[in-house]
Amino acid sequence: MNPEQKPVQLPLGIRLRDDATFANYYAGANAAAQGYIERACHAQDAWVDSFIWLWGKPGSGRSHLLQAACLRAEEQGLRAQYLPLQECLDYGPGVLDGVEYCDLLALDDVQLVAGQPGWEQGLFHAFNRLRDAGKRLLISADCSPRELVIDLPDLHSRFNLALVFHLQELDDDEKLRALQLRASRRGLYLSDEVGRFLLGRLTRSMDALFAALEQLDQASLQAQRKLTIPFVKDVLFGDNGRL
């Protein structure tokens, strides 16, 4: 690290998920967004091409892709910082101090601080410092930058410079493939039959489905059992494994 660079530290308690990788992400209709984000982790293109805005409903994979980008950047020897704003609210906009010393900054759920003067000023100045330093910025929100209600006009204009991707929710077939991909990365075999059983009995939220798969993975290891419908029923819905 350049000795003139200021160290950047994550707020206490914020960690990247080890399983939030590009290899673990089933893109479906979001393949173009994933491709651009992966390129942003490597390319030395003009700064504006490295400012990407992801928006979509909860569970559409926004947080996964931001964390995957940070993990990939770190693998490339770059300095990356992931800031889930839900967890940063109590710290205030001071968490943005020094972000220009990162090669890549990922801000998750930026809609949570829209309309708050201190945060908007902090984001505006952080944006300018990142741009002037030629660094990369990824932002996620539940709406597009044009739809986000921002009181600071200059910040709104900055946000509208982004390359924008609307992340689409997976349909049931794609959710099944996403579950099977995640299972295979864990060394598990998830048949179509068992996967469709999970989709039919659990909420369609990918976070909930992945949490159930993790529970099944642990139970399978302990019991040395394959994932069958009777075993899944016992683990997830039996007296000792009710969700």
UniProtKB/TrEMBL annotation:
<dbReference type="Pfam" id="PF00308">
    <property type="entry name" value="Bac_DnaA"/>
</dbReference>
<feature type="domain" description="Hda lid">
    <location>
        <begin position="172"/>
        <end position="236"/>
    </location>
</feature>
<dbReference type="GO" id="GO:0006270">
    <property type="term" value="P:DNA replication initiation"/>
</dbReference>
<dbReference type="InterPro" id="IPR017788">
    <property type="entry name" value="Hda"/>
</dbReference>
<dbReference type="Pfam" id="PF22688">
    <property type="entry name" value="Hda_lid"/>
</dbReference>
<dbReference type="InterPro" id="IPR055199">
    <property type="entry name" value="Hda_lid"/>
</dbReference>
<dbReference type="InterPro" id="IPR027417">
    <property type="entry name" value="P-loop_NTPase"/>
</dbReference>
<dbReference type="InterPro" id="IPR013317">
    <property type="entry name" value="DnaA_dom"/>
</dbReference>
<feature type="domain" description="Chromosomal replication initiator protein DnaA ATPAse">
    <location>
        <begin position="101"/>
        <end position="164"/>
    </location>
</feature>
<protein>
    <submittedName>
        <fullName>Regulatory inactivation of DnaA Hda protein</fullName>
    </submittedName>
</protein>
<dbReference type="GO" id="GO:0032297">
    <property type="term" value="P:negative regulation of DNA-templated DNA replication initiation"/>
</dbReference>
